[in-house]
Specification:
heterodimer; A: Aldehyde Dehydrogenase, Chain A, domain 1; Aldehyde Dehydrogenase, Chain A, domain 2; five-stranded parallel beta sheet; 15 strands; B: Rossmann fold
Amino acid sequence: MVQRSLKRNALRALPARSIIDAIAAAARQWSDPDLPSRRRSARAIAERTGYSASVVDHALHHLFEPITGTALNQTIAAELGSVDVLDGFVQRDGRPDTFAAAVGSVCLIASRTTIGVTLLPAIYALCAKCDVMVKDREDHLIAAFFGTLAERHEAFSDAARAKTFSSEASELDIHEFDCVVAFGKDATLARIRSACAPNARFVGFGSRASAGYITAGRTHDNGALTATLEGAARDFLLYDSEGCMSLHVLFVEEAAGGGRIAELFSAAVERESLRFPIGTSDLEAVTRRASVQRSAAFRASMASQGVLSDERSTHAIVFDPPRDEPPPFTPRSISVIPVHGPSDAASYLKRHRIALEAFALSERRADLVDMAVEAGAVRLTRFGAMQQPPASGNHGGRPRILDFVRWIDREL
Amino acid sequence: MSETTFNSLALQIFAHQLRHNAPYARFCASLGVGPDAMPARWEDIPAVPVSAFKDATLTTFEPGTAELQFETSGTTQRRAGVHFMENAALYRASLLAAFDRAMLPDCARLRYLNVVPSSNEKPRSSLAYMLDVITSARGDGLGGWYVHGDQLAVDEFVHDTHAAISDGIGVCITGTAFGLLNLLDALSARNESFELPPRSRMMETGGFKGRTREIERRQFYRLLSERFGIEEPAITAEYGMTELSSQCYDSLESRSSAQRIKVSPPWLRSRVVDPVGKTIQGEQSGALVHVDLANRSSVLAIATDDLASAARDGFLLHGRLESAGLRGCSLDAEDLWSSVR
């Protein structure tokens, strides 16, 4: 039960700025790759996920490095109007005084593939002075970070808990929580939502994919093209294509010479693979990738498309697949699709009903931005930055802290 | 069938397909296999992925003259593949012989109650055709079909089952796992159960993947057994696919055990392979590749997306690789669900 695990309102007496400072300081500690607890977590994550050590290190660096006091203060002030509103009533011009109180107890449920995906929501929930329970993985990353926080201020040991779930149903009753944040398939989210208390807030992050678009204009400058393709290769390779921010489909304008770009992309993937080698994929993932390669090889024999890979078959780049075929959504497998223009890309995404998280664009061209917005993307970014969302940005098209506060207006 | 005979037949059929099946020949050529570089063993015959049936017309004959054509499942987003068969007699002979070996070792004359649409309703369904052939050739003439459109004809099924019980004739209830599960639900809602006559049996096929409901196989068989009053070993799983002309079934010996081993008829051989197509020795899992001599007029070697491991005289099926689909930031909320409900 929540009451046994979390002390209610444990952070209430702490000023929001103190909470932010403590979190930023803890994140700074965790930005050090030699921090013993981070080293332990990195080993455990690599063991759990099968990702190579360099991929895990990259993930942890980009997870903690952006969590600064400045980023947290700016995000909170932007969403709530000020940081002070978390501590008590503040005056507003022409509107009632208001106070952004904690929504209450928050439960966060995730994550198998994305490393530390619950960390940022947990941090913002703590900034809102909520009591936070995270369903942690076997690597105990969140628990370890909360441990560092508790060393900064003992109130965090009451307010922030991370538990590895067991099969004992009584261990967590989400009916008790005032807010539940869950990551998973849409059907699962629906079921979790139905288990929440009727008045509880539910924040669901459903299945999403990411796409990229390379314009013909970008290919005239060899240096720029190389940088773009190397960035795309990182976006594709990191976390073995398993995250919602992984590059799953790459559109290339035909005027750029799609086949040539696919070959250059494959070369970039091979180069970046040296830095981010493939992890130990499970049998199903390996078999699925082999299946993607077999299908593409058959089509290649009919000269209707191509498949590019390396000697060890650690990735599969399927060039010019039939348009009725969705992206492979298979570890280290991607479709590269030649298009006449943005409308072709939009048609493809619409046809396959792909819910988009990030869209990497090789340039900020108005028609591309319009297409990405129309396609439902919630992040427009550059190649190479897809897997590095800023802590001050939104996630899944949602705000960072607003879901964790309860507005109280004072009209007297 | 001896290894030598199978090998010889497989290589003869492969040579025929190289001559007359142009897309398959091009695929083989891309792998360095052709008339001048023939494989020495059936295991080395290049296998096409099942998706190839969507991408090309894989026949050794003019497809317009096909006596049978069956469609693989398609979706609104994706087109279906087609398996054209030159000769209906060959398919009938293959499916009946395999069925007889696995389902009718006692040569019983049964009444077939098919919880699938008939071939009249689904003329491009290989399962409907197969059950149509079996019902006509091995049934007592009074069987029926109990899925019309998307509707389960429960009243009709209950009536006909009671009639069979009254007549004292053994029945064979066939259907997809998902269809039979729906039937169980409907019977449960009506509080209807049966004590089927002796020699009755069931054949299920297809599994649950991609459906909104999925239950564990042993639980499923227990529910069927209780609802129909038959022993669990009388329930057999068939493994087949539109791209093949032959089917595998649970071996007779394994039907009483927790792990059911699929066995093939002698003219179908299966290998469990690693990602580069090499046969896996021992119990490690891999993908299934079939060489089906009855696929004479299309492609005899098929690489599937099914995961399996080799077992004595057959294989253990672990499931079908489905498209992974979109991934959220995590999938493990699914794992969690059982612990929070």
